Amino acid sequence: MSFQQLFFNFLNIPGFFTTKAQKKLFRILSSILGIILVLNIHNPSLSFLPKSTEILWDTYGIPHIYAANNQNAFKVFGWAQMQSHGNLLLRLYGQARGRAAEYWGEDYLESDRWVKTMGIPERSKIWYKAQNPAFRRYLDAFAAGINAYAKERADLIDDDVKVVLPVQAEDVLAHVQRVLNFTFVVNPATVKGIDEEQSKAGSNAWAIAPTHSASGNAMLLANPHLPWSDLFLWYEAQITAPGIDAYGATLVGIPVLAIAFNNNLGWTHTVNTFDGWDLYDLKLAGQGYLFDGKVRNFETDTIEIKVKQEDSTTRSQQLTIQRSVHGPLIEQQNGKALALRVVGLDRAGVLEQWWDMARAKNLKQFETTLKRLQLPMFTVMYADRKGHIMHLFNAQVPVRSQGDFEDWERIIPGDTSKTLWTKIHPYQDLPRVLDPPSGWLQNANDPPWTTTFPSAINPDKYPPYMAPRFMDFRAQHSARMLAEDKKISFEEMISYKHSTHMEMADRLLDDLIPALGKEGSKLALQAAEVLEKWDRQANADSRGAVLFAFWSEQMDFDTMFGTPWNENLPRTTPDGLADPNQAVATLLRVAANLNKVYGGIDVPWGEVFRLKYGGVDLPANGGSGSLGIFRVVNFEPSSNNRFQPVAGDSYVAAIEFSQPIKAMVLTSYGNSTQPGSEQVRDRLALFSKKQLRPVLRSRSEIEAHLDERQRF
Predict the structure, then answer these.
(1) Torsion angle, alpha carbons of 523, 526, 531, 537, to 10
(2) Is pLDDT of 388 > 50?
(3) pLDDT the model gives residue 27
(4) What is the pLDDT averaged over residues 335-345?
(5) pLDDT digits (tens, 9 = 90+) for 512-522
(6) 3-state secondary structure 62-104
(7) How much is the CA Rg of the chain, to the nearest whole Å?
(8) What pLDDT score was predicted for residue 200?
(9) Average pLDDT in the 131-138 region?
(10) What pairs with residue 236 in β-bridges?
(11) Domain that residue 542 falls in
(12) Is the same domain home to 229 and 270?
């Protein structure tokens, strides 16, 4: 029994305090206890203090945190993330400091230049001061938990990342900026027009109302698709402390849950069609640039970047950073310069907002928290026990003077204040749907206009730059599954989540197969037969999927369809082949190559596409969302003409707000990257079988599947 428990038991003896002296003693003892509790909060390492906070690690490798106060919850969450991802976490924080090249060499130089040019380390200090005092202490506690683990378990951390220690709360905030504002909102590849990482970032999300649910309970499906590496990795946890009992996931290094549910409600995110950055074309003049007919000087700083050499010495180079009224310059040549403007850099409260979202008990509290608009982007898909469902196009959308979405994707003239946005739209301006008549909401990275049918949002009532207008095949597949089943059970929702059906095939095979028959060659007839027998899915044993997928990659998506996408027919267009002869010629080339490489054109999908990751190699199912597959896995070439996953389904949570709550989850690659973890093998085996695992939430369930107990 802890000191506090003994003390309070002592105080609760009936009639114990009767005399004035005894009452005075009570006040003295109470003061002493108060001092002890304060010391425990600010210096939990004191050995004589009670240890009422613990982590229960279940057999799935999930930390279930039980804390007597929120500050301790943050501290042990930092400890837990280090135990699961210590090497990765420290490396990410080193990059967020802009000192990764100093720590680990030339490979990180471009990363440091980006971080320094964007002003992330300096802004993290401003963000730290902007936190309310209580939450600032929580961030300090998270950093303290990281440092405590690194000190006590130093043998479990790689030597080359220890240079980052000790971690400060400012490092946490720098990492948050780097992830949210300077990776998701905009990143170096996006600015250069490459957009590699952004093309791999996506998600599915469903909210199903009681009227559309077989059980009469609301349901939520969370399904982010992100790269399976680096700062994109999900971390699964449960946090129980005063005012909170939430289960969910966050990105490694972030001290709060970003996708979560509690006993009353839950939410998930998708990457939305949001433009929160612009490149401005400046006209150089004198020592500055023209703005509203006058010459303005750049703000200029010169900083030093250190780079570790192979012989462990360090060289230094100067980085000159120039800023216009728009933002930092990212390019300057031939009398012109490009300046980058990004939303949200003056909004430091995203972590506290996520924390309070997880603490909300009803829709009103949840929306009150959302209205802070501290999260720079991401759709919010919501469901709760009372049966409400909601889709919010959450984003810090700049108030722009004119133009549509496509106009603002171009480089913007920077010589006039007419194009310089300075405000964002308030919450009430954002597209939002609550409790639609359809009984369902979906988002598969499509604009908000297609979240349900009949359509619940009229895009003409919003500024034309708010979001583009399109609905791709994955979103159409998503909406079709929801619309065709009027009463969806929890088990059916999970089954639909794993659908590998290629929606694109439904639009093209009716033209492609007859065109192959008309061509009449032996190979064409063989290809027609394979495609005719194909189940139009990308399961491990699907034959014909490889042929169709490889062929579609060789076609020009913008010109291949006879009927292009039509806003008035959003779920049935595009459709048909524009040039059947060209399509057949392309397919025959692909078929000939398949024969050469794989010895046949009907090679099973799982022979070519492998779940090769972390020492595991299993037949894969799923594929690119561009084919209309809901179960998204993005592959890249591996060895022996096979392909391995690099992104896609990364975290899945299916939740039914029953009594008690039903929940099934899977983090595809496991919950730990530290050496020696065997979780990848177990999780990918479930992934390969299209299975989720049960969530353990109650203390009795967790203790029945307990792997380790840690008391603090």
Answers:
(1) -100
(2) yes
(3) 54
(4) 95
(5) 999 999 999 99
(6) CEEEECCCHHHHHHHHHHHHHHHHHHHHHHHHHHHCCCHHHHH
(7) 28
(8) 66
(9) 98
(10) 249
(11) 503-621
(12) yes
* CA–CA dist 222, 204 (Å, integer): 7
Query: CB within 8 A of 270, min separation 6: which ones?
Result: 202, 203, 204, 205, 224, 378, 379, 381, 443, 444, 445
SS (H, E, C) 559-581: CCEEECCECCECCCCCEEECCHH
Domain-embedded: residue 414 = no
pLDDT the model gives residue 37: 44
- pLDDT over threshold 60, residue 96: yes
Q: Which residue has the tokens 């779920």?
A: 571
Q: How far is CA 564 from CA 465, 570, 572, 586, in A?
A: 22, 10, 10, 20
417 belongs to a structural domain: no
Q: How far apart are CA 239 and CA 65, in angstroms?
A: 5
Q: Structural domain tally of the chain?
A: 4
State the helix-helix crossing angle for 133-152 and 70-96, rounded to 10 degrees: 70
Rounded average pLDDT over 48-63? 81
Q: Are residues 523 and 589 in the same domain?
A: yes
Ordered DSSP codes for 139-160: HHHHHHHHHHHHHHTGGGS-GG
pTM: 0.92
pLDDT at 16: 40
- On whether the CB atoms of residues 380 and 370 are closer than 8 A, the answer is yes
So what's the pLDDT on residue 47?
35
Residues 166 and 18 grouped into a single domain: no
563: CATH: 1.10.1400.10
Q: What is the mean pLDDT of the chain?
A: 93
The pLDDT assigned to 192 comes to 83
> What would you measure as the largest C-alpha separation in the chain, in angstroms?
107
Contact of 350 with 124, CB cutoff 8 Å: no
**Residues 170, 215 within the same domain:** yes
Same domain for 351 and 208: yes
Do 211 and 172 belong to one domain? Answer: yes
Q: Is the pLDDT of residue 386 over 70?
A: yes
Specify which of 331-340, 656-665, 671-680 reaches the highest per-range mean pLDDT. 656-665
Task: Work out the angle between the directed axes of helices 363-370 and 350-359 (0-180°, nearest 10).
Answer: 180
Give me the residue label for tokens 């939990």.
44
Q: Which two tokens stand for residue 29?
A: 């003892």
Residues 261 and 376 in one domain: yes
Mean pLDDT of all residues in 188-209: 80
Domain at 304, CATH number: 2.30.120.10
Within a domain: residue 483? yes
> Would you say residue 194 has pLDDT above 90?
no
Domain annotation covers residue 639? no
Q: What is the pLDDT of residues 147-157, one digit of tens each?
A: 999 999 999 99
Tell me, yes or no, whether 297 and 361 share the same domain: no
**Three-state secondary-structure class, residue 192:** coil
Percent of the chain at pLDDT exceeding 90: 89
The encoded tokens of residue 382 equal 């919501």
Mean pLDDT computed over 67-73: 97
Give pLDDT tens digits for 345-364: 999 999 999 999 999 999 99
Query: What are the helix (H) ranges across 624-695?
Result: 679-688
The region, left, alpha or beta by phi > 0 then psi within -120 to 50, assigned to residue 112 is alpha
List the CATH number of the domain containing 265.
3.60.20.10
H helices then E strands: how many in the chain? 21, 30
Nearest to residue 588, comparing CAs of 554, 623, 541, 562?
A: 554
Give the three-class secondary structure for 463: coil
Of 611, 654, 665, nearest in space to 633 by CA: 611
Instruction: Give the C-alpha separation, 278 to 587, whole Å.
Output: 40
